[in-house]
């Protein structure tokens, strides 16, 4: 008789306290709604006030999963050590030049948090501006947000979150004395943008529902209550952000949801000036600005350009009637981002799932591309902090090739390799194979799947597989180098990424056909990827572990209901599994913003029925499920902790098998999990130990070496 994989221990049983809700004549009853704390806004800021009954249940869940995973303790230690050895502990970025200085980040040996430094422009003594480890001392959770130095390089505004709730506080540091001023600005989105004189900065403040709807200006040396309200967005479905131009001439106020945008501008040298509207919002029309001297370059999908085009307008007359096309749309090739410099216009585009950088000489109109030849790779456009330059920076990696950072001369087309990601424990790209497959979906579409495996892994269907997916908001998952997944690949796993609809991997239409009433395509694409991997003998269904987080966790919950037999295990991190209840509740932080993505079930019965048809929590049924590991953070404002807590409770109640459902909740963190670079690896090690456990691959021989 085969020994059970998990010990037979009693799982926590959540109390049932039925709450009914009727919408569009349809009544639903939720037995586990009580797991949502009525004072959830306060809990995000002060987790200690969580109701004892809820806390006791969550702690029981943690104790249960710890007991079921107890026998993987040594394995998790080994995995953590492996992953840590692949990280250069005293790593440092290549500084970006800006005026008289060059700015960069670094880590110290054993350090969890980044440090920010600068040197003289062309090299010299390094000055440590901000030490994240020092700021994090004594805190259970700490995450640094963005930093921004003033145009005169005399001050630094920096943000931090010490709850995991993403309510960031901002401080100002004097870069002469390296001491923080008395200024403290609370409840922000995490960043500040300086005015041209460096006398104050702009920031967005979060309301009680965690929405950035108000733009303020903070003058250095004054209390936050005296900050000037500059602009307010009354529609809770639109969020606001603020940015600056590379010439420090303009402040950009960006307002938008998932399909519509609107921008306002303020002269950076006149922070109290009334914001100027560039183009009034129109549902479905997106645009964003970058400064190009006397013009703005505008990336937009206006006039039906679904894959986007670039237009220009004079900075003194940026309204729509003055927009002129510069780079036309190429259907099927989506423009992702753009940047402008004195003599060049640069944009990053994606064609058939692969990225490339295009450079155009603004005077001659001549264009050329920066591209690579591997089957699957990732390309990042870092650009430059300076406007008057011929040099931009970009990064390249593939699933086998560690990240490389280049300076690129747009005029001479010369590449200068600045840095190659070090893997201290060693890495030979020739030991691994990366492939790009096309999986046929039920409707005939071909779904790209990027895979990585060890050359010695047998491709006879016996190999286990970790299949990752996301598939929402137009997000594209790059086929980039990932040191952590090597711990699975070296144990005989095939590591796969399904580039499913809902992302923009194959253009904007790929996104459109995976949202709202077409959301089902996201799930069937992922199942098709699993079936194709089996058909091509890369793995077998009982050896596939599906993995996704956040909206990718929704994916995990949906495929668990639709095709549980297709997977041997499922890992759902911060999973958005109670989508119907969440999108019906307009008081939750992201709900109004989410309606363009999912539909509005409050006003539309059709949207209600569509979401109800796939909502993981609503569709849990009396069927056999594979082992499932769910993970969450107590102070997560994006996917609230009660979504996976309720899902797990309902799964246990209704499923017909003996496979365990594990729930691991970090009581000191939010959406992104643990905040330190190494503490996050402990969570990855836990996930991987689960994958190895359910596939029976805790020890394997690969490449003539045994790994525990």
Automatic annotation (TrEMBL):
Protein name per Swiss-Prot or TrEMBL: Peptidase S9
Please list where the region (Disordered) is annotated. 1-22
**Family to which the UniProt record says this protein belongs:** Belongs to the peptidase S9A family.
Q: Which UniProt keywords apply?
A: Hydrolase, Protease, Serine protease
Species name? Paramesorhizobium deserti
* Organism taxonomic ancestry: Bacteria, Pseudomonadati, Pseudomonadota, Alphaproteobacteria, Hyphomicrobiales
Q: Which Gene Ontology terms cover its molecular function? A: serine-type endopeptidase activity
PANTHER family documented for this protein: PROLYL ENDOPEPTIDASE-LIKE (PTHR11757:SF19), PROTEASE FAMILY S9A OLIGOPEPTIDASE (PTHR11757)
**Span of domain Peptidase S9A N-terminal:** 12-420
State the Gene Ontology BP annotations.
proteolysis
Per the record, the domain of life is: Bacteria
Q: Which residues form the Peptidase S9 prolyl oligopeptidase catalytic domain?
A: 480-697
């Amino acid at each position: 008789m085969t020994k059970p994989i998990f010990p037979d221990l009693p799982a926590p049983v959540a109390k049932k306290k039925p709450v009914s809700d009727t919408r569009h004549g349809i009544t639903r009853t939720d037995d586990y709604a009580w797991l949502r704390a009525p004072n959830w806004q306060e809990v995000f800021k002060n987790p200690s006030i969580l109701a004892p009954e809820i806390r006791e249940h969550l702690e029981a869940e943690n104790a249960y999963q710890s007991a079921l995973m107890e026998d993987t303790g040594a394995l998790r230690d080994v995995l953590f050590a492996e992953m840590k050895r692949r990280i250069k502990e005293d790593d440092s970025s290549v500084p970006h030049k800006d005026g008289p200085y060059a700015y960069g980040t670094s880590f110290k040996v054993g350090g969890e948090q980044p440090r920010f430094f600068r040197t003289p422009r062309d090299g010299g003594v390094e000055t440590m501006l901000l030490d994240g480890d020092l700021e994090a001392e004594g805190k259970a959770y700490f995450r640094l947000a963005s930093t921004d130095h003033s145009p005169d390089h005399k001050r630094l505004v920096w943000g931090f979150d010490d709850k995991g709730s993403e309510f960031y506080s901002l401080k100002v540091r004097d870069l002469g004395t390296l001491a923080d001023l008395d200024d403290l600005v609370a409840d922000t989105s995490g960043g500040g943008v300086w005015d041209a004189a460096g006398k104050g900065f702009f920031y967005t403040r979060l309301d009680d529902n965690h929405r950035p709807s108000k733009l303020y200006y903070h003058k250095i040396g004054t209390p936050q209550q005296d900050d000037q309200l500059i602009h307010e967005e009354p529609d809770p479905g639109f969020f606001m952000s603020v940015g600056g131009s590379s010439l420090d001439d303009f402040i950009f106020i960006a307002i938008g949801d998932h399909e519509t945008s609107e921008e306002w501008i303020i002269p950076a040298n006149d922070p109290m000036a009334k914001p100027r509207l560039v183009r009034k919002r129109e549902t479905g029309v997106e645009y964003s600005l970058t400064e190009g001297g006397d013009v703005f370059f505008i990336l937009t999908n206006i006039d039906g350009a679904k894959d986007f085009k670039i237009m220009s307008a004079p900075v003194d007359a940026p309204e729509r009637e003055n927009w002129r096309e510069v780079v036309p749309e190429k259907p099927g090739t989506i423009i992702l981002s753009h940047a402008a410099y004195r003599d060049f216009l640069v944009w990053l585009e994606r064609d058939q799932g692969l990225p490339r950088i295009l450079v155009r000489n603004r005077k001659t109109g001549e264009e050329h591309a920066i591209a690579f030849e591997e089957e699957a790779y990732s390309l990042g456009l870092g650009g430059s902090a300076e406007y008057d330059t011929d040099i931009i920076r970009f990064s390249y990696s593939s699933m086998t090739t560690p990240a490389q950072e280049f300076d690129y001369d747009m005029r001479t087309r010369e590449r200068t390799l600045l840095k190659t990601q070090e893997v201290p424990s060693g890495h030979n790209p020739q030991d691994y194979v990366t492939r790009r497959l096309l999986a046929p979906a039920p409707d005939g579409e071909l779904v790209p799947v990027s895979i990585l495996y060890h050359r010695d892994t047998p491709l006879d269907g016996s190999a286990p597989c970790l299949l990752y997916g996301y598939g929402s908001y137009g997000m594209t998952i790059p086929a980039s180098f990932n040191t952590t997944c090597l711990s699975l690949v070296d144990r005989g796993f095939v590591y796969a990424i399904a580039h499913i609809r809902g992302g923009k991997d194959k253009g904007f239409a790929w996104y459109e056909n995976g949202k709202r009433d077409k959301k089902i395509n996201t799930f069937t694409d992922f199942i098709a990827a699993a079936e194709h991997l089996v058909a091509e003998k890369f793995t077998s269904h009982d050896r596939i572990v599906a993995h996704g987080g956040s909206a990718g966790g929704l994916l995990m919950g949906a495929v668990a209901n639709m095709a549980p037999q297709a997977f041997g295990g499922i890992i759902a991190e911060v999973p958005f599994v109670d989508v119907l209840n969440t999108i019906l509740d307009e008081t939750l932080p992201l709900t109004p913003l989410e309606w363009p993505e999912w539909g509005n079930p409050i006003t539309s019965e059709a949207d209600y029925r569509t979401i109800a048809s796939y909502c993981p929590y609503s569709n849990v049924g009396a069927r056999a499920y594979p082992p499932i590991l769910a993970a969450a953070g107590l102070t997560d404002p994006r996917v609230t902790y009660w979504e996976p807590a309720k899902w797990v409770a309902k799964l246990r109640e209704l499923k017909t098998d003996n496979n365990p459902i594990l729930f691991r909740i970090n009581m000191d963190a939010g959406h992104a999990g643990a905040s330190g670079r190494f503490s996050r690896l402990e969570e990855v090690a836990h996930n991987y130990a689960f994958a190895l456990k359910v596939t029976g691959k805790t020890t394997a021989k690969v490449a003539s070496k045994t790994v525990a």
